[in-house]
Amino acid sequence: MTESNEFPSSRMESLYNDACQIIESARNNAVRSVDFCRVQMYWHLGQRIFVEEQQGKERADYGTYLLQNLSKRLEPEFGSGFGYRQLKFCRQFYRTYPNGNTLRSQLNWSQYRRLIQIEDPDKREYYELESVNNGWTARETERQISSMLYERLLMSNNKESVLAVARKERIPESPTEIIKDPMVLEFLGLHREASYYEKDLEGAIMSHLTDFLLEMGKGFSFVARQKRLLLEDDEFFADLVFYNRLLRCHVVIELKTGTLTHQDLGQLQMYVNYYDRNEKLPDENPTIGILLCTEKNNTVVRMTLPEDNKTILASEYRLYLPTTEQLVNEVNEVKRLAQQKSNASEQL
Q1: How far, in Å, CA of 249 to CA of 173, rounded?
Q2: What pTM, to 2 d.p., does this model score?
Q3: Residue 152, C-beta contacts closer than 8 angstroms, at least 6 positions apart
Q4: pLDDT tens digits for range 116-141
């Protein structure tokens, strides 16, 4: 009896998949290794420039003179990566991270170059940690900084709790620690002046689901679109359903392209109740509902929902990147309202 030369197709498929994974992993590690070598190269350049610069510190213009002359010699031989502007970044890089042992191999030069432009050390640390924790690419790091993720989280959280989560010193315990208000959805490509409906917004989100999950924040995974809920003979459809592994609960999202109403909140509350009573497992936390709208009336939200409400949230969305001034004004307004509420409680 001769042995067959046939190799079982299932085993060949498994072997092929494993081989692909090994090759891709090796390639990715090689790329990361090259990227980090580049980071270390620019750090050492910055260190050497800084040391040399200190020898001429009595001359205010010595640093500029040094960089200009060095770049004139390096750039023709090694390329544009060693021009005057890049050498300035190298010097700034070393001054921001004077201890080379603290450099993170998960981050590339593009990410570090963006990080060193952040003056606030707490803010810089947050983006550095989150870039590593979430495996952000340089584009994703840039997008989160440009959309002012840190400032938006501070609108409903204090700095200590935001940094503690980024440092992995604690796990988020409430929806407001993850979910942002406002949400910035510029990647959808919808124009503010254009007329569109909820289905257009929903379709755009599904077409850019990866970007939407990034904007949603930590721990989200997609579950369903237009989830059918049958209540006796009546059908209802929840726009989007996600699950958050950190909060350990389902998250139901209703989309509104206008100002929210108390009826919208009531409908979302019904969807949340349905999930709590029919989908939630005994060891899971209560379902969260998010009403995503273009404009909200905080008084309507407050008067419609119970005072101890922790599961229904209203969040505005923006189809453009807000300016720093706009976000700062909103942060200050939120702080002002919170202080007013605190003062009113003390008077009672």
Answers
A1: 11
A2: 0.77
A3: 180, 181, 182, 184, 327
A4: 999 999 999 999 999 999 999 999 99
Q: Which two tokens stand for residue 159?
A: 């700095």
Q: In the 8-state DSSP scheme, what is residue 60?
A: T
Sheet harboring 220-231: ordered strands across?
Answer: 183-184, 312-318, 288-293, 249-255, 234-244, 220-231
Contact 93, 43 (CB under 8 A): yes
* Amino acid residing at 148: M
Q: What are phi and psi for residue 148, nearest 5 degrees?
A: 60, 50
Running DSSP on this structure, what letter comes out for residue 2?
A: P
**Which of residues 139 and 18 earns the better pLDDT score?**
139
Greater pLDDT, 340 or 222:
222
The three-state secondary structure class of 254 is strand
Q: What is the pLDDT of residue 1?
A: 45
Number of separate helices (H) and strands (E) present in the chain: 13, 6
Token pair for residue 254? 């209703």
CA atoms of 227 and 187, how far apart (whole Å): 24
Tell me the backbone φ, ψ of residue 315, rounded to 5 degrees.
-130, 130
